[in-house]
UniProtKB/TrEMBL annotation:
Keyword Oxidoreductase carried by entry: yes
NCBIfam families: PRK10376.1 (NF007695)
Domain of life (superkingdom): Bacteria
Name of the molecule in the record: Oxidoreductase
Native species: Streptomyces carpinensis
Keyword Transcription regulation: no
Domain NADP-dependent oxidoreductase: 19-285
Cross-referenced Pfam families: Aldo_ket_red
Alphabetical list of InterPro entries matching this protein: AKR, Aldo-Keto_reductase, NAD(P)_OxRdtase_dom_sf, NADP_OxRdtase_dom
Alphabetically ordered keywords of this record: Oxidoreductase
Length: 288
C-alpha cells in the first residue's frame, strides 16, 4: 500500500510516514471554526484516509478549536498501530474565530495537554511548534518555547518534535536543543522561497511537509499548470501534488479535503510521473 502513497519517510526510529498524508484542517466549519456542516461526511473522510493506507494525519487543537481533534478521535480511536498523528501548538482562536499566536511556554504546555485529551492519547506522536505567520517566518529565538516542548518530550508526553513556519536559523537553533523530525512550511509550485531549506532538511533526514500545497486560501492559478495537466490527462491539483513528491524524496504532502472523492484524487497523484519537459515548465512557475 505505501507504494501507492508515494512511498514512506522514516525521519526517526518509530516514526514512519506515508509521503501522501492527510491534512484534517478542512473538517472544521467555515474558516476552520466551529463544527463541520456534515459530521458524518467528516468522519467518512477520516476513515477513508486510513482505509487507503495513509499513516500520516496532520491536525491541531486550534482547528475548530478542538473540533477536528475530537472528530479524529471519534472516527479512528482506538488508533491503528501504524497511524501517526502530527499536531501543532503555538496558536489559539479568539471567540470571533481570529487566529492568535500564543508562544508562552506555560500556554504551550497547556496546549499539549489539550491535544492529548481531545485526541485521547497518552503521548503525542509529533508536535510541531508553530512560529511565524503562515507565509513569513521570523528570526526570533525559539529556545524558551522549544525547550519547554523538549522537556515534555523527556517526560514522555511527546515522542517527536517538529517546527512550522520556521527559518533556517531557527531550525539550526532547535537542533541544538532536541532532534527535529519535521519542518512544515509554506511551499508549493508558486511559493519556492524555501528551496534551500528543503534541501537542508533532505540532507538531515528531516521530513519537509509543505502546507498549502495547492495554495491554501489562495488556490494555485497558473496557465502553465493548466496546460501541463491537460497534456498529462490529469487535474491541475494532481500535477501540483506530483511535482512536490518529485521535488525531493524528503517531501511529504498533507493535502486537505472534506470530500472522499477529492481525497482519492489526491492519492492518485502519487501514480503520476511527470516527464522532464513537464517538470521544466512547472519549475518556471515559481521563478516567473
Amino acid at each position: 500500500m505505501p507504494a501507492t502513497l508515494g512511498g514512506i519517510l522514516t525521519p526517526a526510529n518509530g516514526l514512519t510516514l506515508t509521503r501522501i498524508g492527510y491534512g484534517a484542517m478542512q473538517l472544521a466549519g467555515p474558516n476552520v471554526f466551529g463544527p463541520p456542516r456534515d459530521r458524518d461526511r467528516a468522519i467518512a473522510v477520516l476513515r477513508a484516509a486510513v482505509e487507503a493506507g495513509i499513516t500520516h494525519i496532520d491536525t491541531a487543537d486550534f482547528y475548530g478549536p478542538a473540533v477536528v481533534n475530537e472528530l479524529i478521535k471519534e472516527a479512528l480511536h482506538p488508533y491503528p498501530a501504524d497511524l501517526r498523528i502530527v499536531t501543532k501548538v503555538g496558536a489559539r482562536r479568539g471567540p470571533d474565530g481570529s487566529w492568535r499566536q500564543v508562544l508562552d511556554p506555560a500556554d504551550l504546555r497547556a496546549q499539549v495537554h489539550e491535544n492529548l485529551t481531545h485526541l485521547g492519547v497518552d503521548a503525542l506522536d509529533v508536535v510541531n511548534l508553530r512560529l511565524g505567520s503562515h507565509d513569513t517566518p521570523n528570526e526570533d529565538s525559539l529556545a524558551e518555547q522549544f525547550g519547554a516542548l523538549a522537556e515534555l518530550r523527556r517526560q514522555g508526553l511527546i515522542r517527536h518534535l517538529g517546527l512550522s513556519a520556521v527559518s533556517a536559523r531557527q531550525l539550526a537553533e532547535a537542533r541544538t536543543i532536541a532532534p527535529v523530525v519535521t519542518v512544515q512550511n509554506l511551499y508549493n509550485l508558486a511559493n519556492r522561497q524555501d528551496d534551500d531549506l528543503l534541501d537542508r532538511c533532505a540532507a538531515q533526514n528531516i521530513a519537509f511537509v509543505p502546507y498549502f500545497p495547492l495554495g491554501g486560501f489562495s488556490p494555485l492559478q497558473s496557465e502553465t499548470l493548466t496546460k501541463v495537466a491537460a497534456r498529462l490527462e490529469a487535474s491541475p491539483q494532481q500535477v501540483a501534488l506530483a511535482w512536490l513528491l518529485q521535488r525531493s524524496p524528503a517531501v511529504a504532502i498533507i493535502p486537505g479535503t472534506s470530500s472522499v472523492t477529492h481525497l482519492r484524487e489526491n492519492i492518485a497523484s502519487a501514480a503520476l510521473t511527470l516527464p522532464a519537459d513537464a517538470i521544466e515548465e512547472l519549475d518556471g512557475i515559481g521563478t516567473a
